[in-house]
């Protein structure tokens, strides 16, 4: 039994190590890394304090990935001056981004100001190590910073007009054309029009971006980088580490179609998803960003964790407006230029629920701009009610939400969030469940040790499942960028409960439980496979006959022969009643007593042919399972389909074939 203890200890160490890396990568002020980093020296700055004194600070390494930590207006400024200051602030930030793009690793003074506005950047080292060396990073502390009071305006501070001119010049130099100054009133009017016309326009812009990216040439590789990312939290901010994946053309340039936010799951780390991130970047021509978020709330910030509303809203806010924080981090990680505006939110496990919630908050913001193309969850789940609430916000205009689910198991809350998604969007394509899938299908391929223990804790992923995840996700995302879907897209879709063969594996399109017409269900059924019970070992020719009793209950008669055709006969008779409020569950009673209508029931019809030619039956535990057909035998391919369907519908027990030697011919 020593090896059992060794495996258990290894699993605990792996989870502890993963959690430690996550804690290390939710960075605060100390950004020193054991891996290579670029230090940027800046001179000390002295500023007047509000009380007339001075506050001195010695800058050591200005982090271009840090957004302004303090924005405060003077109480004496009138409304016009405030608007002018805000415009100057935006231009100053844009100027800083463009300077970083052109200057590369040069030291940048991140402190700029306008009348009544002070911009302070927190000093931190920029880590430029490849994302695959995450394990070498030293532990940094997670930090939530409050905005510091701003100082009085320095006479040398550039005016709003000067900042605007400098910004326009910088944009002209980096893009080869002058940037037009937007009309603020027009922007406000456009932000308030959350209509189908806005959605159509956004889809048209997305399609144009796809064509423009395609004209730049195919993606030949993926460039990786790492930088600090600042997530806004109302008046505070949350800083963490983010891995960036940039799709590159043959000449090394980047002409991405969109951005994918990829969120790890509970107790996960960004480095565990590097294989998935690289695949998404290369096959969808997307810039992928994966950030570490805490798996537990802290005393300093109760909402700063993967299930916290504060971070969900903060991530949504990063995609509103000029996406300054994202652009600064991407620039520090190696991007030259700015990020595309179209984006997709995605995540695994609790990260999938996080992505959906963030999408809901983004859609609810009238100034969002309508750039969210969709949400893709990798066996995502969340607390009860979180996803349905987000889906309501994502309904007008309609934003697709797709799920690549594993069969119900403890690590996806037994499919609770998947069921909520199906119920919230009835009749629509919302994803698939992979046959015999593991909760960690999507994260395999980044680290063999983590892969092994992750599967040991959940279940081992069958051959082909991870590749199926890639095929499904990349096909859907490419369609989302073009405004396409199940009716006209090139990805893999299907009707509810449709069976899809995907090479070595298979999938079933998500669907609600079947609505059973008991009159059509009556008659003779043959068992072609089942989870064998002690009384059914050696039983062949197993048959179930259902008919109506005079009192309205269902007569159940199960029969078969032991070992051979015409062998010793086994027969048992019972009765069944539908569970109250259910359309696919019954209670069956044998021997003594009458069946009740109380839930949960012990006879669940979890999958059913529309023509009532086959059915899959289990119970609320999933430990029993029966494959029933109207014919005594089926083909090998169809038997495999029934097995796959049973796994998708939650049958956990091992199903083995039931012989039917009384069969005259083999039928489909």
- Please indicate the count of domains: 3
Q: In the CATH hierarchy, what is the architecture of the largest domain at level 2? A: 3-Layer(aba) Sandwich
Radius of gyration: 29 Å
Q: How many helical stretches?
A: 15
User: How many strands?
Assistant: 26
Might you state the CATH topology name of the largest domain? Rossmann fold
What is the CATH first-level class name of the largest domain? Answer: Alpha Beta
Main sheet properties: 11 strands, mixed
> What is the approximate shape?
elongated
Give the name of the CATH superfamily of the largest domain.
Answer: Alpha/Beta hydrolase fold, catalytic domain
> Mean pLDDT, rounded to whole units?
77
Give the low-confidence spans: 1-24, 27-199
End-to-end separation in angstroms reads 47 Å
Q: In what range is the share of β-strand residues?
A: 15-25%
Percent of residues in helices comes to 25-40%
State the secondary-structure class: alpha+beta
What is the quaternary state of this protein? single chain
